[in-house]
């Protein structure tokens, strides 16, 4: 289903506390604590665009992102989604690294969502999955990313723990931090999430809390459990009403909870919903960056 959000439509005035920054090279307040992933502009990437959005904006590739984010949003920290890589060949990774360096940008994390399941029952499948995540750790080293996010998967928790323990050893050997997000696997139970961290780590293995992935009923209680162990936060918005109010949860409260839990790291903003929304995603990005920044203590 395609939903239109008139407040965020191109060319219409913005109200209800939404501001637009469009001036180049303007440093963001709290810029060292702000980043943005490529998920928010997924409809502009050939690999993830939706046929339901006829005019998603000009096409993007990862080679474009560092300069674009710097010019349009004043951001120097970016996060890449695995779907948006064209390959992991050395020549392509070298071009990506050069684009980051040319823009004065830093890759802060890679979200690994390729075909793997670290909790699979089949041992061959688990071994292949471990090797897949380790390929992305190798890519993170080349690109200068300090971390990768790997999903525990679905299956026996003991298999997920054993797989992540092995991957964590590999990550430590390569000086890469390993992150687990609440990302629709067995770790959606926050107690299981923390057990995985404790038994597969805890050294070098941290949570990556995502504001938008829990159910409305579980959200705040679950976040409260995993926020104290966060290395990075996915500051996710889902959808907005016609007046520009975020639904279905209090986004600002999520940031405030993270700050109260003592989080001092980076918030990587993104938007995701299973329904396609016809709106100006640059303005959504402005909203996200503004609302995170307004709620930071330092």
List keywords for this structure.
298 residues, TIM Barrel, 8-stranded parallel sheet, two-stranded parallel sheet, 35% helix, 16% strand
Provide a compact summary of the structure.
The chain is α/β, with parallel strands linked by helices. The chain is built from eight helices and twelve strands. A hairpin with a 5-residue loop joins strand 9 and strand 10 (246-247).
Task: Chart the SSEs and their pairings.
Layout lengths: L1 E3 L29 E4 L27 H9 L3 E5 L8 H14 L2 E6 L11 H21 L3 E3 L7 H17 L3 E5 L8 H11 L4 E4 L10 H8 L5 E6 L1 E2 L5 E2 L3 H10 L5 E6 L4 E3 L2 H14 L4
Parallel strand pairs: 1-12, 2-3, 2-11, 3-4, 4-5, 5-6, 6-7, 8-11
Antiparallel strand pairs: 9-10
Helix pairs in contact: 1-2, 3-4, 4-5, 5-6
Task: Please tell me about this protein's structure.
- This is TIM barrel protein.
- Residues 73-289 form the Xylose isomerase-like TIM barrel domain.
- Pfam families: AP_endonuc_2.
- This protein is of the alpha/beta class.
- It has a single domain (2-294), classed as TIM Barrel (Alpha-Beta Barrel), CATH 3.20.20.150.
- Helix content is 35%, strand content 16%.
- Helix 5 runs parallel beside helix 6 (219-226).
Q: What is the helix fraction of residues, given as a range?
A: 25-40%
- Runs in which pLDDT lies below 50 for 5 or more consecutive residues are 10-25
Counted up, domains total 1
Terminal-residue CA separation: 40 Å
Shape: globular
Order of helices and strands: EEHEHEHEHEHEHEEEHEEH
By CATH, the superfamily comes out as Divalent-metal-dependent TIM barrel enzymes
What amount of the residues lies in strands?
15-25%
| CATH fold-level name | TIM Barrel
Rg from C-alpha positions? 19 Å
